[in-house]
Amino acid sequence: MTDDVSRRRFIRTGLIAGGAVALAGCSGSEDDQSTESEAASDTGETNSDGGGPTFPEIDDPPEAVYLPTHFEAMRHLDPVEAGAFELMPMVTYPHRFWNVTGEEVEPANPEGDDVHLMVAVRDPESGMVLPVGTGLQIQVGREGEPKTPYAPWPMLSQEMGFHFGDNIPLGDDGTYEVDVTVGAFDVELTGEFADRFDESATGTFRFEFDQEFRNEVVDEIEYLDEQYWGEPGALGPMSHGMGHDHGDEDHHDDFGHVDGHDHDDGGHGGHDHGTDYGGFGTYVRDSGETELPPTESLPGQLLGAPISGDAVIATTLFSADSRFVEEGQYLAVSPRTPYNRGMLPMMSIDLTVDRESEAESIVETQLTETMDHELGYHYAVRTAALDGVEFEDGDTLTLSFPTIPQVSRHRGYETAFTDMEPVELTVELS
């Protein structure tokens, strides 16, 4: 194995596996698919008929978040201003992802596509990623030529967090221009986000599509040691601007500190979870910050963080002395991915409240999608809207999920957040 191939197959400390930091090393025995995949990476060539490189498949992955075979390689482009939004564009080789329609999760295979385009939308003031519910529209074409419209999918990725993306056919080499239109926000906005993001806006970025780009993004693919393929865990999030072209530098600097817990947020295995990362998704964050705050750092009174479908359902309650309500209470439910604390948008959450003194449920309602500068993306209800009912000590709250997150998934997420059973919490007022 050459030094260059060995470097690309090293595992970085952004990986959490089996409750401990995974150590770097070359793979041992490899099956034919692994050999074929590494050969594709080593030659720096995509498939002759388009569709990008091939990768080994994991047999029978767990119905949970798991470690894929490799780290993605891509080009991070400069941030782009679009009205009140900031766009973080990325481009890489076309690859398989999984679309979700209702309860069905179906693979979308690249056939004749040339690139996988991705755009994350964030608040330029706080750096927080925004799950723009009305979606994105993009138009793609060679510079100075007519553009073709596309509607990219909302997506979840272990390394890139929440973003929009799709496999796109291009054509001849050259400079390509992409117009990105962000729709007005269609979730409730609270705190410092109130009265913002109420108008659509468009931004434009450009990238070079040529043989050098195709060679580099394939050559920079990094494989995990085979013993970790399909194991419970997640790849560490990448920071914008760092990419995967590391040369011989120390990978430890890219992903900050990992303290080796099984999951980043509550419940799994009974451990105290507190993993911190130096960066998340497509942008640089302060240490310890990701798309959502840690469960133990959520404001309000934490009622619990049960697990459903491998999602952590962090739930907190605010009283009338909070900024969320003038009277009554405010219940905030913050579902997130394990390990990386990524948001889980575009799902529905129903709340049922039972009280021991009542023969029937005293509340049956659906929570509202909400974005807050402190809580991030969450689902909420105000008791003032519940016919005067307020939560009392001993009440049983049942959260059910009639609609799973309607977002496409990159490898390692496609088997999670699909079979989400109801969870229960008991109100214990401080």
Percent of residues in beta strands? 25-35%
Helix content bin: under 10%
End-to-end distance: 60 Å
Low-confidence stretches: 1-49, 240-261, 266-289
Q: CATH H level of the domain at 293-426: which superfamily? A: Periplasmic metal-binding protein Tp34-type
Extended strand count: 31
What structural class do helix, strand and pairing data support?
mainly beta
Main sheet summary? 7 strands, mixed
CATH class of the domain at 293-426: Mainly Beta
Q: For the residues shown, what is the average pLDDT? A: 80
Task: Write down the CATH topology of the domain at 293-426.
Answer: Immunoglobulin-like
CATH-derived architecture of the domain at 293-426: Sandwich
* Rg from alpha-carbon coordinates: 22 Å
Basic shape: globular
How many helix segments? 4
Briefly summarize what is shown.
The chain is mainly beta and 430 residues long.
Task: Provide key terms for this protein.
single chain; 430 residues; mainly beta; Immunoglobulin-like; seven-stranded mixed beta sheet; 4 helices; 31 strands; globular
